[in-house]
Amino acid sequence: MGTSKWSKHRLLSQSTLLRPHLPETKWLSSSSFWQMMNKYGEVIIKPTGSSGGHGVIRIKHLGKSKYTIHDGAKKSTLSKSQTNQFIVKKHSRSHLVQRRISLATVNGQPFDLRVMVQRRPHSPWQVTGKLAKVAGKGFVVTNIGKSHGYVVTANRAIELSKLPTSKSSALLGKLNQVALTAAAKLGPSYRWVHTMGFDMALDSTGRVWIIEVNFAPMLGLFLKLKDKSAFHKINAIHKSNRK
């Protein structure tokens, strides 16, 4: 079993419990792109083997055969034929096309969540930390280094968003439940993996989504939080598994 985004997505999509939390994803081709664009009006294109938000592009239909391409902080508007030419170039580089989820926002900027799930040898998976990554102004991706965004606690992000704060604990609990179910599904195929970093999202209605799964997540993100206790817990388990 490979470790690409596509391999992990295919494995997760075998679960009837997880399928409602996975945005539709296909190998990128002209036909799959236009099928997804006609269905959703807005998609994400990303390399199947990259990490850190590199190469992630948003394409949105503006109407009247016009499409906006948002690459990093750069935006351009193309015709339908120009957009198709753009897609053909990407097709040869092993990209995926994915439904774009309308992320909940903090002060108008989208955020997603990093949910850390870990296990010690012969022990069950556990959620050891959560935080929210808020995209920098003008950026689509939430990767901190790439978009110059910032991190806050998951609870704080929900408080600052337009999601009902009365449902905060239920939303956090649902994130935990989905992440643990996903780790249990992936675990048997990746027995050497003891730390998983789930990039998850809450959309504007509060629905939980799994965007992708990282097997070598950057632990230092949690050092950016004022409270360092989550980092120390995550790092201790990570180190114990390397002995």
From TrEMBL:
<dbReference type="InterPro" id="IPR026838">
    <property type="entry name" value="YheC/D"/>
</dbReference>
<keyword id="KW-0547">Nucleotide-binding</keyword>
<dbReference type="Pfam" id="PF14398">
    <property type="entry name" value="ATPgrasp_YheCD"/>
</dbReference>
<feature type="domain" description="ATP-grasp">
    <location>
        <begin position="14"/>
        <end position="242"/>
    </location>
</feature>
<dbReference type="GO" id="GO:0005524">
    <property type="term" value="F:ATP binding"/>
</dbReference>
<dbReference type="GO" id="GO:0046872">
    <property type="term" value="F:metal ion binding"/>
</dbReference>
<protein>
    <recommendedName>
        <fullName>ATP-grasp domain-containing protein</fullName>
    </recommendedName>
</protein>
<keyword id="KW-0067">ATP-binding</keyword>
<dbReference type="InterPro" id="IPR011761">
    <property type="entry name" value="ATP-grasp"/>
</dbReference>
